[in-house]
């Protein structure tokens, strides 16, 4: 998914200023009326929320409204268009009461029927690559009057509020968005903080304040222009030339290091811990990795510190569990089990299985999904495994579309994937990867997780009280080595030193809240 990061850690962003200074700022001065221009390499794939489970969420968060949301500093869903709560002890009935006087930007009323229409059309259309997969626990939607919406679930699911807080569940106008088809006229009518005045595919989106908005966002600017770039190099050049005021998504490790080192530039860099992760997937049905000791030996050899240092130059962190740092339930299971990389221990694991010759191994990765550093990352993994003398690695790669088709057919013995969470809950880092049918298309049947631990945890609305279940689930993942976590990312916003608010602009899903940005008024 997009994707879609995080986290308690993301709520406490650390600002690294490349130009020291002491500043007072306000959004009320003349400069505050000038639109802020933000550059990104994350262009929407569609303007209809029913069709997107990807980076399109960046735009949606700013022009649409959801029942719940994640204000800066919160890792649990908070009221946006509505006040919501479970009305039963089993987390199966979720009721929302809309704010009074809500309206779409075209003046149409936003009522309970609009909410029901917005969610049900996701299921009806079931767009390929769309967010219908998030609604697996939903049974029916019932409205009462103009302001009350009740969601009845098939099974206990305490993560349902988190799902409603994703931009995928944006509320749309029934008169403009068909119940059984996607809207394709290139226009948007939401009820969010901004109105989308104009949109040019591959070029830019013009946002201005929505005068009828009623929600949690405290807008600190009058409007924002989002410019879309194909390459980060051009985006950074535009920032240095003052053609844009800030960037989000797309900075390479080299560009981050350059921005950190060049202290004579009138730029600043805001850093936060991300929840996006990278990991290896083992297809246990393939003979080369069907034996557990082979997978364990790989886990024993991989040197995450070296990988992060050489390829990502400190812009990522080693990861030892599928649940990353900053998410409740995070552990260091793979480090606890395997410790530091040790070739001798790996050799012993293989010898006890009767394997005394180098194991032929093919590693697959995609060339155009996770950034230009992916190829270097897999070269480093190959180097580590080859130098151990225990493996003979071949690297293969394909563009994302073909790569996806290949792993869905079970053609790859080992392949690299990334995960951008839908919401900041440990469930979203465990549930998608287990079960006969999972997002990886490599069946991983573990009833202890799917039939016991996950259902038990979903009955508990206090998500901080389910760490034990997820710690147990992660121990099972360590036992099986079907997934091998490698690293979690850091997130960066580069901006002109005139721009304030970057340290508050990323929500726990690491979606950019444009309303937090403002121009500083004076030195």
From TrEMBL:
Record-stated family: Belongs to the bacterial solute-binding protein 5 family.
Matches recorded under PROSITE patterns: PROKAR_LIPOPROTEIN
UniProt domain Solute-binding protein family: residue ranges: 77-438
Compartments reported by the entry: Cell envelope
Broad class of where this protein is predominantly found: other
Protein species of origin: Streptomyces ficellus
Keyword Glycoprotein: no
Keywords: Signal, Transport
Name of the protein: ABC transporter substrate-binding protein
Signal sequence, start to end: 1-20
Keyword Signal: yes
């Amino acid at each position: 998914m997009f994707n879609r990061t995080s986290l308690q850690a993301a709520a406490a962003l650390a600002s690294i200023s490349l130009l020291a200074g002491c500043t007072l700022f306000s959004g009320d001065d003349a400069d505050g009326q000038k639109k802020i221009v933000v550059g990104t390499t994350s262009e929407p794939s569609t303007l209809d929320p029913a069709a997107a489970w990807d980076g399109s969420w960046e735009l949606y968060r700013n022009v649409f409204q959801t029942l719940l949301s994640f204000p800066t500093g919160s890792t649990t869903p908070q009221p946006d268009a509505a006040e919501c709560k479970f009305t039963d002890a089993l987390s199966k009935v979720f009721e929302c009461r809309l704010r009074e006087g809500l309206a779409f930007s075209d003046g149409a009323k936003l009522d309970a029927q609009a909410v029901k229409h917005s969610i049900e059309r996701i299921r009806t259309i079931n767009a390929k690559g769309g967010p219908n997969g998030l609604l697996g626990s939903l049974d029916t939607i019932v409205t009462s009057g103009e302001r009350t919406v009740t969601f009845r679930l098939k099974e206990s699911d305490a993560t349902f509020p988190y799902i409603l807080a994703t931009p995928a569940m944006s509320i749309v106008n029934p008169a403009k968005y068909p119940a059984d088809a996607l809207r394709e006229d290139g226009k948007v009518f939401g009820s969010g903080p901004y109105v989308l005045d104009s949109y040019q595919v591959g070029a830019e989106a013009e946002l201005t304040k929505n005068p009828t908005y009623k929600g949690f966002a405290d807008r600190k600017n009058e409007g924002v222009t989002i410019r879309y770039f194909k390459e980060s190099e051009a985006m950074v050049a535009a920032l240095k030339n003052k053609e844009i005021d800030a960037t989000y998504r797309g900075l390479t490790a080299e560009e981050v290091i350059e921005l950190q080192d060049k202290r004579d530039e009138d730029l600043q860099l805001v850093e936060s811990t991300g929840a996006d992760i990278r990991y290896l997937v083992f297809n246990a049905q393939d003979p080369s990795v069907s034996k557990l000791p082979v997978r364990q030996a790989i886990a024993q050899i991989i040197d995450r510190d070296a990988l992060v240092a050489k390829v990502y130059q400190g812009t990522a962190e080693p990861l030892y569990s599928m649940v990353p740092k900053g998410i409740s339930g995070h552990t260091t299971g793979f480090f606890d089990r395997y410790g530091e990389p040790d070739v001798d221990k790996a050799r012993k694991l293989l010898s006890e299985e009767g394997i005394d010759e180098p194991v032929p191994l093919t590693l697959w990765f995609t060339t155009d999904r996770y950034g230009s550093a992916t190829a270097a990352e897999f070269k480093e993994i190959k180097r580590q495994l080859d130098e151990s003398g225990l493996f003979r690695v071949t690297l293969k790669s394909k563009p994302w579309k073909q790569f996806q088709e290949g792993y869905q057919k079970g053609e790859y013995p080992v392949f690299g994937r990334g995960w951008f969470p839908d919401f900041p809950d440990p469930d979203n880092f465990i549930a998608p990867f287990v079960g006969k049918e999972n997002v990886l298309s490599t069946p991983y049947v573990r009833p202890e997780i799917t039939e016991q631990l996950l259902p038990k945890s979903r009955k508990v609305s206090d998500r901080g009280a389910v760490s034990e279940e997820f710690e147990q689930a992660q121990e099972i993942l360590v036992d099986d080595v079907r997934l091998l976590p490698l690293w979690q990312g850091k997130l960066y916003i580069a901006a002109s030193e005139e721009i304030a608010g970057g340290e508050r602009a990323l929500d726990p899903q690491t979606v950019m809240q444009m309303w937090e940005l403002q121009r500083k008024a004076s030195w």
